[in-house]
Design goal:
Blueprint lengths: L3 H14 L20 H19 L3 H10 L4 H4 L4 H4 L7 H8 L5 H18 L6 H11 L23
Helix pairs in contact: 2-3, 2-8, 3-7, 3-8, 6-7, 7-8
InterPro entries: HD_domain, YfbR/HDDC2
Pfam families: HD_3
Protein name: HD domain-containing protein
Length: 163
């Protein structure tokens, strides 16, 4: 029989599978009726982040990990578009992640929480390492607002909340 941490880890892995069914809501503002899923977005961000990290000579595996888990909380709170964040108050990402991995293996708990904490620090521009700086550039780019808008590979349109 599996122990509590094995069941908790399996539960976390299963929950992450839900991300393939969570649509990114920012695309709806552009009229795209078939937006990418959060899982598709996270994969693409991971690829972009690791490639940029390779080009910058920093830890591409660390950057890919940060990118992979940056939206993992959306299994529980959904993908809140940037325009809606002014009006909605979700629990902090670190708190959601702590609940998600509460019963997981200690190494999984520490690794996932560390990735989310690093990601959130990057989003707050607390850039303490080259890997964090590179992951920051993946979803924020050079714009003054902190949002980089790129065309959808499916439609060529640009969403209001893409990051």
């Amino acid at each position: 029989m599996a122990d509590e941490t094995t069941r908790g880890t399996a539960s976390f892995i299963s929950e992450m599978g839900v991300l393939k069914r969570v649509a990114r809501t920012g695309w709806w503002f552009t009229g795209n009726k078939a937006p990418e899923s959060v899982a598709e977005h996270s994969f693409r961000v991971g690829v972009i982040g690791s490639v940029l990290a390779m080009m910058e000579g920093v830890d591409s595996a660390r950057v890919a990990l940060l990118c992979l888990f940056h939206d993992s909380q959306e299994t529980r709170v959904g993908d809140i578009p940037h325009i809606g964040r002014k009006y909605l108050r979700a629990a902090p990402n670190g708190e959601v992640t702590a609940d998600q991995v509460a019963n997981a293996h200690p190494a999984v708990r520490e690794g996932v929480q560390g990735a989310v904490t690093s990601t959130r620090l990057a989003k707050l521009r607390r850039r303490s390492s080259p890997a964090t700086r590179t992951s920051w550039s993946v979803w924020c780019g050079p714009s003054s607002t902190g949002n980089r808008v790129t065309a959808s590979p499916r439609t060529g349109s640009t969403p209001a909340s893409q990051h």
